[in-house]
Amino acid sequence: MLAARAVAVGFTLIAVAKTMTSVAATSSETRGLHASASRDAGSGSPRQRLQKLLAVPGYNPSRVNDLLLLRPETDGQSGAESKEKSSNRHVVFFHGDIQNFQEEMSVQPEGAQWLRWSLEQVALTLGQRFPDRHIWVVRASRMYLHKFSCYHNFVESNMFGAPEHSSYSPETAAFRHLRSLLSHGMERANLPNPLQPQGGADSVPSGFALTLVGFSKGCVVLNQMVYELSGARADPRLSHFIKRITDMYWLDGGHPGGSETWVTDKQVLKEFASSGVSIHAHVTPYEVCDPMRAWVGREYGYFIKTLDEFGACPSKKLHFEDEPPSIENHFRVIQEF
Question: Region Disordered: start and end of each range (predicted)?
């Protein structure tokens, strides 16, 4: 297992090195972004709707994550009813390796090459995909060597972010952490009618709806939630929250471990299929057609096939199938899904 993980990590770094663009070009792009933001001052531009919330606590006060919030655009033509509806619809995004806040990526030799996929840029991209929702980007609580995202607040992981999935535990559950994280984030951002950190049906605001999106390494959080689903649905403190999850998107999931890139436990998938959540899987050849990590493609196929057998009818798409596998196309799935 450790040898497989080492090979996978090495391959990832080689792929990154081979596909990097020049720092000078990226720096020029960054200057253009700042100039654009200055020109838009006072116009309610998307960048002005971004808010960084640092060290937001989850269920356990010692487990904190930084959040980036993009508020939905209001054009003055939507009435009070529409505004109320949008204020309770949310998208949560879990990023992959390399990705970080723009200011931090810009000072790292590898991160600077990929500034167009910074957390701020991704939030803006998702804002175009979901224009009537609040977009929440959850920054991994640790970035080992400034590049390996580790979501240990959601799932037990090694230093490279490879997960060790487990069933539901009330004290360490990913669902409980996410709920409290959103609740405290909404409170800090002064959003109206916020989600309560815990409780039954009356603690979930009217019209609240949640979409979860994982990209690359960020998919380990979605996987952990699938493993937890049976126990969490039986917990009255979480069941009403979980019922408000409408969609879950896997975007080219991958991590440096040698297995469990996709959920393959048949009983776990049976429970997931019965949840009523709309399931979406978008992949690229970079992950599912890599001969050095052939298990990723096999697991993806089993994930889709098993959910189909249980009647979940997941939507799926292989993007860029006629192009050579590349990390650039791996990132581009964020735009294309």
Answer: 25-47
DSSP 205: P
Per-residue pLDDT, averaged over 285-303, amounts to 95
Report the amino acid identity of residue 5: R
Is residue 330 within 8 Å of 286, Cβ to Cβ? yes
In degrees rounded to 5, what are phi and psi of residue 77?
A: -100, -15
Phi-psi region of 272 (alpha: psi -120 to 50; beta: other; left: phi over 0): alpha
**In the Cβ-directed half-sphere of 34, how many Cα atoms lie within 13 Å?**
9
The Cα angle at residue 164 between residues 286 and 215, in degrees rounded to 5:
35
Residue with tokens 């790292």: 108
Segments in the chain forming alpha helices (H): 2-19, 23-39, 80-87, 102-105, 119-129, 174-188, 219-233, 239-242, 266-273, 285-288, 294-309, 327-336
Distance between CA 337 and CA 326 in Å, rounded?
17
pLDDT higher than threshold 60 for residue 116? yes
199: Cα separation from own chain's centroid: 25
Question: What mean pLDDT is predicted for residues 246-274?
Answer: 94
Domains and CATH numbers, the chain: 2-6+53-72+85-336 (3.40.50.1820)
Give CA separation, 27 vs 74, 119, 327, in Å. 32, 16, 20
Residue 196 is classified by DSSP as P
CA distance 19 to 322: 18
Length of the chain as a residue count: 337
| Residue 80 reports pLDDT greater than 90 | no
**Cα 306 from Cα 303, distance rounded (Å):** 5
Q: What span, in angstroms and rounded, lies between the C-alpha atoms of 153 and 257?
A: 18
Helices and strands, number each (H, E), in the chain: 12, 10
Rg (CA), the chain: 19
Q: Which residue has the tokens 């949008």?
A: 86
